[in-house]
Amino acid sequence: MSPVGGSKSPALIRDNQVCFEIIREGAVYGKNHGDSKLYGEGSVFWHGSGEITVSESPSDGYYSCLVAYFEYDPGVMAEPWPSYFQWDDRLVMHRFADEMLYAYHSAALRRSVVGNLLWARLQFQLERYRQSLDREVVHPKLQLAIDFINLHYAEPISLDDVAQSADLSVSHLHMLFREHMKESPRQFLIQKRMRSAGHALVTSREPIKVIASQFGYANTENFCRAFRKFFGRSASEYRSAYIGGLNS
């Protein structure tokens, strides 16, 4: 996960190498110089040799992404990809990214197997994107609500707060989320908190009680219950699995 405002510096893609960045949380500015558009969850960037990764977020924002590097033989042209495309189903994207991270760090699978699966899935998602370029644009008030959650999900916000940020009633907020996101605003908020909490669990040694409070849960039992329901394992089991895989 990048710090507020983005990464300190972009990464340079080496010769005979390509890189994919899948934006999982937050939003980032595009890869072209001067591009002021923000790209959020499910955005996929492709970078060829000599290019640099995306790195900038709004001054009060952040982003996190899954990064995958692929190497190809010298003298062989890298397969052409568009510089950007969109993963059409953000929930599927999150599940697949979690599976890839677990397979890479904890399941003792060969890296070539994981890489081949990831490459094939990106090709599949690119084809789906090409077939749905005329898809509906996100409702502007829904985007305001999403932006508010992205900025304040770690605080004890309510659905009233989210609805007010977009000048909507709570019932209208529910309707827009169900129609466009295929989930409720509460489910969207919980998954933001859980994925960020999972990241904190495996990248810090903070006690679970502290992490719970950092992501809007004053009651640790409520956090642990929500975490188990979301990930299918306890917070301590989740931490042990990933840290164990990383240290093996």
UniProtKB/TrEMBL annotation:
UniProt keyword terms in alphabetical order: DNA-binding, Transcription, Transcription regulation
A UniProt-annotated Pfam family: HTH_18
Domain of life of the organism encoding this protein: Bacteria
Signal peptide residues on this chain, from the entry's feature table: none
HTH araC/xylS-type domain span: 143-241
Keyword NAD: no
InterPro entries listed in its UniProt record: Homeodomain-like_sf (IPR009057), HTH_AraC (IPR018060), Tscrpt_reg_AraC-type_HTH (IPR020449)
Protein name, as recorded: AraC family transcriptional regulator
